[in-house]
Amino acid sequence: MKKNALAILGSPHANGTTAAMLDLAIHKAEQLGYAVTKIKLYEKKIAFCTGCRTCMDTHICIHKDDIQEIAVLLHECQLVILAAPVYWANVPASVKNMFDRLLGTAMKETDTFPKPRLQGKKYMLLTSCNTPAPFSWIYGQSRGAIRSMDEFFKTAGMKPTGKVVCANVKRKKELPKRTMKKIERCLK
C-alpha cells in the first residue's frame, strides 16, 4: 500500500528555520517510503471562515478556494507534518485560518464531545521561535503554538508522532544537531 504524507509550511519564510525543519522531516519521511506533498500555506488562496457551519453536514467547506485541495489531501494521507513558527505564543493567522476552514473535515458535532473524522492518521508538529530556551517554554511562547496545533489534530482523531521546538532561532544560522535528531526520531 502506498503511504502518503502531507507536509504543510505555515511560515511566510520559505528559507527560514521552520522551513528547514519541515524539509528535514520531508526527507526523513521519503526515506521511510512516504510520497510527500508539500503545501506552502502563504501561497494558497484561503478565505476566512464565515461561520455558516454548512461544513458540519457536507464534511468540506462550501466556499470554493484552495481549502478543498487541502481537505482532499488530508483524507488521502496517513501522515501530516505541520511546521509553523510562533507568533505571539500561537500559530500564524494562516494556520489558524486553515484550522477554522477545516472544521467539518476534521470533526462532527455531537451533544457531548466532537466525533473525529480523520482517525487512523498520524501527525507531527514543528515550530520555531526567537525566544531563547527555556524562556520560550516558561513563558508559553512555544507551548501556545504547540497546544493550538495539537488541539486541531487530536480533535480530528489523529495520533502524534512527535512535537519539536527550535527556540532562539534569531541567533542560529542552521538547524542545531539536537533539533535535527529530534525530528528524525519522531519519524522512525
Explain this structure.
The model has no long low-confidence stretch (mean pLDDT about 95). The protein has eight helices and seven strands. The chain is α/β, with parallel strands linked by helices and about 190 residues long. Strand 1 (about 5-10), helix 1 and strand 2 form a beta-alpha-beta unit. Helices cover about 40% and strands about 20% of the residues. It has a five-stranded parallel beta sheet, with helices on both faces. The chain has a single domain (about 5-185), classed as Rossmann fold, CATH 3.40.50.
**End-to-end C-alpha gap:** 18 Å
Got a strand count?
A: 7
What's the SSE pattern?
A: EHEHHEHHEEEHHEH
| Principal-axis shape | globular
Global mean pLDDT: 93
Fold-level CATH name: Rossmann fold
| The CATH top-level class label | Alpha Beta
User: How large is the radius of gyration?
Assistant: 16 Å
Name the beta content range: 15-25%
Query: What profile does the largest beta sheet have?
Result: 5 strands, parallel
Strand order within the widest sheet? 2-1-3-6-7
Q: What is the structural class? A: alpha/beta
Low-confidence stretches: none
Q: Find the CATH superfamily.
A: Flavodoxin domain
- Fraction of helical residues: 25-40%
Counting H and I runs of at least 4 residues, what is the number of helices? 8
Domain count: the total is 1
CATH-derived architecture: 3-Layer(aba) Sandwich
